[in-house]
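Z., the sequence and structure:
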Amino acid sequence: MAGKTTGRVYLVGAGPGDPGLVTVRGMELLERADCVVYDALIPLQILGHCREGCELVDAGKRGGKHTMSQEKINALLVRKAKEYQCVVRLKGGDPLVFGRGGEEALFLRKVGVPFEIVPGVSSALAGPAYAGIPVTHRSVASQLTLVAGHGMSGRDAAAVQMDALAAAPGSKVVLMGMENLRELMGKLLQGGQAPQTPAAVIQWATTARQRCVRGTVASIADAVEAAGVDSPAVVVIGEVVDLAEELDWRKNLPLSGRRIIVTRPREQVGRLSQLLGEQGAEVVPIPMLRLVPPTDRQAFAEAVVNARHHDWLVFSSPNGVRRFFEAFFAVYEDLRELGGVRIAALGSGTAAELRKRGLMVDVMPQEAVAEKLIEEFDRREDDFGGLAHCTMLWIHAQQARRFIFDELTKRKAIVDECIAYDVEPVDAPFAERLLAQGADFIIFTSSSTVRHFVKMGLRLPESCRVVSMGPVTSKTLRDIGLPVDIEAPLHTVDSIVETICSIERG
């Protein structure tokens, strides 16, 4: 019996590969974990959600090659539970489907370590679904048989009754069967499986690298060999395979099979990631920066408190809006405490954040560029009687360009500053490994992300196209010597996604 522990081990399923398929509970635990012990094939971008300072331990096993034995993994989990409060044992797919999750849970119970099992989406179900193959269908298959491929050959062959498996109705899904695929199909045929039974092999299921090869039980091994498909892969056998002709929902998405790296801070990647994902892309966040409070927090607080005494509030970014109102509602309970101020916003993204708080903007350029904002003020001058002697509060990042301040001052406005946040470089975990895996596009959303990318000594993936979010970022890229393959017409995430999609559509 092990000594008393204070921590808990969470056996978490990471899903089949697409980071979007991690459960809400699984992601919550990853974000607060003190230590994560992870298997091979866990997407590195999932580990990127771990908090700074979390200990990451690679315990991966793949194709018979072990980073550490199961006995050592068991001992490691006990040791980490004595060191930390929250230990996540991160396993591919579902922790209890053809993995060692059940064995690890039994061991933890035996030695008195508290544990929790967090189910995950199994590749046995998600892999076929992402290839348009429903593993069951009322008109085709009402039974599903899951088999571990390594139990169908060699010394473990007796564990599976091949005659019974061949005779089983419905669909059959084989995991970990690629190493012996030809042998397995041969044994099914010997067991009485009809040679013309449809079969499919789905490699790297649910990721941008997904490939699906279809054939029959008699032909699938040859088809896979000709296509150069290897593990990790899911094998599907049954009439449901033919439904992929109509149900392959990913093949018509414009960004299907495209891998896109996004360098903006983690706090800002949500909507861009969502929009790209909806178009079929695999999104890989490699944040170059993170948002932090401004250096002078007291000055920020005072500026927020006194904001209502100004004629104008000028917001330079969605982040400025969020940080400003977090502080505002810490002091005031009613939005009407702002009084009758007019509001200017730098671009539609900033305006959208204001609308969430019930505020409409008086001045907004279509392009989120400082020069365009000043042009819009000049164009609309007759609408509000000019800017001379107006009191204006400019809400911005600590390292923002001075252009807005200088130009408003030239127009005789009285401009106060509200520095709402700062950005600082962050060494993105696994950045070099993620870049080495390749990408079709890399998106830079600010000059700061470009400069830190270069400062870290990172290199663009081969044949990767560089996407810039606006002319200022493009200038920085060119000044540093990096290409600009695509520049979004508007400085918004919607414009970036629309531009990439239009290029892919041709």
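The chain has a mean pLDDT of 91. The CA atoms of residues 377 and 383 lie 10 Å apart.

Let me know what you think.
H.
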